[in-house]
Design goal:
The structure holds two protein chains of two kinds. By secondary structure, chain A is mainly α. Helices cover 74% and strands 0% of the residues of chain A. In chain B, a hairpin with a 4-residue loop joins β2 and β3 (138-145). The chains are: A mainly alpha, B alpha+beta.
């Protein structure tokens, strides 16, 4: 059985409050999800909280998974990413992002780049058609949790300029990926 | 595309999926998604399009202790006093007591017709727990985290499958409160979803929720 199919079936059983399925789902996916929490937050203790909160949401939300239309890994990744970004924003509140240049350079390591999926190559191909700083802004929003406001400060452009840039970039990206 | 989504909404879906919006705008999209299937489908498409960006994030094994902590948080069993006394009886009371206690244990932990849901809005740091006791018809509502915003109230709603939301009352500004529900409302808990919404002080005047802050399916305990 493929991993994805197995994860999908486990989520279905978790939706019926099956604790054994929940335990297996955790074993299969927690390293991936914890990795994402650490990548977004850059902080182990916060990532642990986020992983727990995310699995509580998974336990509570699994019964509605089938109707949300997402593939199983995207559903899990989206929950963790959103939970991590919420935590990050709560931390950043009142705190100037420009004061934290260290947060800027969390690039993927070079070995990982060799193991890319077809989907990843596709989105990379589409991102490479954008201006480099706009492609960086899209990636920064996804994995660093930057909002329009954060990005306008980081790239030193007015908020509305950043909105216009990114909206155009997102439209091109959609065109390219569809 | 087979839907009738306006171009602005396609961009909004992308902005939401990417996480570019501020907390308020994001909550607004979440509330709209509940009612607008086309918008929801576009958000889903964007979440799928973007998810490969997480592909090369390195795997990190979480510390082994986390899983047990998580399971105790969710199932709420082995950390209770009953758990410790069970252990003590096993060592001092012998096998008979252990069997009797194990039976009692399972009896206690079978479904009781009581229901619970925890609603959390991480953006506002708000966490609300609702516990409904079917036998007495009592609903306990507790604000576990997050202060009341000045001039605003948080309202709790019951959404039975396919039905419009019904108000269960206001979430107390601090601590807990109990309300007694009518048998008609009590009968709707199984399989329902609870929601909390942001309202002007005193609660919704339209009979329907304002901005939905969080939803959670009701769990039988």
């Amino acid at each position: 059985m493929s991993n994805l199919l197995q994860i999908e079936m486990l989520i279905g059983r978790v939706g019926l409050n099956d604790r054994d399925a929940f335990s297996k789902l955790y074993d299969l996916t927690s390293a991936k999800l914890f990795g994402i929490a650490i990548r977004v937050l850059g902080n182990q203790a916060e990532a642990e909280d986020v992983l727990q909160d995310s699995f509580i949401k998974i336990w509570q939300g699994a019964s509605r998974y089938a109707v949300n239309g997402l593939s199983p890994m995207t559903w899990l990744v989206t929950i963790v990413r959103n939970t991590a970004i919420d935590k990050l924003r709560a931390r950043r509140q009142g705190d100037d992002i420009a004061d934290h240049p260290d947060l800027a350079d969390k690039r993927p390591n070079p070995e990982a780049a060799a193991l890319q999926s077809d989907e990843r190559r596709r989105i990379d191909g589409c991102l490479s058609q954008l201006e480099p700083d706009r492609a960086d802004a899209v990636k920064g929003a996804y994995l660093d949790g930057y909002s329009y406001e954060d990005l306008s400060k980081r790239h030193n452009v007015p908020l509305n300029t950043m909105r216009t840039w990114l909206r155009r970039s997102l439209l091109s990206l959609r065109e390219c990926l569809s | 595309m087979t839907d009738n989504l306006h171009e602005d909404d396609r961009i909004l879906a992308a902005e939401y999926a990417l996480g570019l919006l501020g907390a308020e705008e994001a909550r607004m999209v979440e509330a709209r998604i509940l009612l607008d299937d086309d918008l929801k489908a576009e958000v889903v498409r964007w979440q799928e399009r973007l998810s490969p960006l997480a592909d090369d994030v390195p795997l990190v094994e979480p510390p082994a202790r986390l899983k047990g902590v998580l399971e105790r948080k969710i199932y709420g069993v082995p950390v209770s006093k009953a758990g410790f006394s069970l252990l003590r009886f096993l060592t001092i009371g012998g096998a008979v007591a252990a069997v009797a206690l194990t039976v009692a244990w399972f009896a206690l932990n079978r479904g009781t017709g009581d229901y619970t849901a925890v609603l959390a809005d991480a953006g506002r740091g708000l966490k609300v727990e609702a516990v409904f006791d079917q036998d007495t018809g009592t609903l306990d509502i507790a604000r576990l985290a997050g202060p009341e915003q000045p001039g605003r109230s948080v309202e709790l709603w019951l959404i039975a499958e396919g039905a419009a939301p019904v108000s269960l009352g206001l979430v107390p500004s601090t601590g807990g409160a109990s309300v007694t529900l009518s048998p008609e409302l009590a009968a709707k808990f199984a399989g329902a979803t609870l929601a909390i919404s942001d309202e002007a002080a005193g609660g919704s005047t339209t009979g329907q929720p304002g901005e939905v802050l969080a939803t959670a399916p009701v769990q039988e305990i």
